[in-house]
Fold this sequence. Notes:
The complex is a heterodimer of chains A (about 400) and B (about 140).
Chain A: H1 12-19, E1 23-24, H2 35-47, H3 58-78, E2 86-89, H4 92-102, E3 112-116, H5 125-134, E4 137-141, H6 151-157, E5 162-168, H7 180-189, E6 193-197, H8 209-212, E7 216-220, E8 231-235, H9 237-240, E9 253-256, E10 261-263, H10 277-291, H11 295-315, E11 319-321, E12 329-334, H12 339-348, E13 351-352, E14 354-356, H13 361-366, E15 372-376, H14 383-400
Parallel strand pairs in A: 1-13, 3-4, 3-5, 5-6, 6-7
Antiparallel strand pairs in A: 2-8, 7-8, 9-10, 11-12, 12-15, 14-15
Helix pairs in contact in A: 2-10, 3-10, 12-14
Chain B: H1 5-16, H2 19-31, E1 47-48, E2 55-62, E3 65-72, H3 75-88, H4 93-98, H5 101-107, H6 122-133
Antiparallel strand pairs in B: 1-2, 2-3
Helix pairs in contact in B: 2-3
Organism (chain B): Pseudomonas fontis
InterPro entries (chain B): Fe-S_metab-assoc_dom
Protein name (chain B): SufE family protein
Amino acid sequence: xxxxxxxxxxxxxxxxxxxxxxxxxxxxxxxxxxxxxxxxxxxxxxxxxxxxxxxxxxxxxxxxxxxxxxxxxxxxxxxxxxxxxxxxxxxxxxxxxxxxxxxxxxxxxxxxxxxxxxxxxxxxxxxxxxxxxxxxxxxxxxxxxxxxxxxxxxxxxxxxxxxxxxxxxxxxxxxxxxxxxxxxxxxxxxxxxxxxxxxxxxxxxxxxxxxxxxxxxxxxxxxxxxxxxxxxxxxxxxxxxxxxxxxxxxxxxxxxxxxxxxxxxxxxxxxxxxxxxxxxxxxxxxxxxxxxxxxxxxxxxxxxxxxxxxxxxxxxxxxxxxxxxxxxxxxxxxxxxxxxxxxxxxxxxxxxxxxxxxxxxxxxxxxxxxxxxxxxxxxxxxxxxxxxxxxxxxxxxxxxx
Amino acid sequence: xxxxxxxxxxxxxxxxxxxxxxxxxxxxxxxxxxxxxxxxxxxxxxxxxxxxxxxxxxxxxxxxxxxxxxxxxxxxxxxxxxxxxxxxxxxxxxxxxxxxxxxxxxxxxxxxxxxxxxxxxxxxxxxxxxxxxxxx
Lengths: 401, 136
């Protein structure tokens, strides 16, 4: 039965890609953009660009107003109490690096940082390198066979020496929601700071940072139908106050002479230099667009597509799906077929999926794999996209077997 | 530079190929022509990194002429490697340096395999060859 996406026409690139015979199923990497975002970028550049927080002139005031309006919208989107708890960065990766440098002074040699075995490199390497700089122990929380952090093991491993817990909300490889609430509650009780990598999670349903009770929550705009080059760092006020400034330059400073300077608190103190102004304004437009959709309809649509995807993969012989994906995506390998060969043939047939290690080499390694193919969905995909993928998969496998 | 008989044969068959399926079949057939690498040849030194699949490039120079062998655990990459080797077999360093290998793959209708976003390793192999030819 055909399952259309009622929002497909809102994303002009989908039709353009279709004219090039491309079926886009790499949405966990980045998403296509709604017309509302294109309009906002065009309006900003077409009506007068200006720098923010600096100038008294009218274009500067308008740009600052639009920029700060997005801060309000992001705070609202995450249910943060105050827009001043939202720091704009250049991406989720740069937000996590900000944390790993900004919190460095909080750690002493021998203390522990806990992350999970499924972390994206962006939520592994900043902590790994911090651990090396400060002589800390990086504790890896193991997974169960379904692709969730093993809660029993994790609660044992997170103890009084744990100073920070950093975990993904939704795995970019396994498509599994992680048992965040129990982990965060336990880590806080142990006195650890908590960081949630929401890069995938924020895209699927509304997240509530106050309910989660995490110290920091990080996501990137471009996976949430917004522009690239923009990341978001939410922090609890007490947690933000513990960050040391890490990048220095324009507008993050209060007073400066040649030898000394004092710096602004968050958010502006962590937004050194000219921020991605158009991108931030564009993110605001994407959030307005998303807020206009019926959230239940979106969740239902994505869930139905995901069931279709899993059914199709399970129906085919020799396909091993990694973990037990709950939504959004599925990664798989095919017995006796190299994923690079299959990816090559899917590409030849205009199917845009991702092959490789998905920026999670240790996870793939622990599964005994050096790569997998990932199909990831967005709200504009429809069942025809999946049909095209499956027929390309069948043709590719027929050739390879 | 004139093409060797084998290279001309490759060009003829790929020029006649219509559609992705036929090209893929040809690639797999060419891949089967590569002689298998020994375990010693599959060494870290010979491994070319930057590929989704494992790729090894074995080289030796005899009387000023280059001779290569290559292998991969992925079949279509083996095909691409075979098409590369058939073009460079027996060339001198000077000839190898002059050779426009991307143009060769474009002639074969496989130019897209060299796009920078592809991590199939062909680009990395070409770079390794260029280093060898330059004596680096």
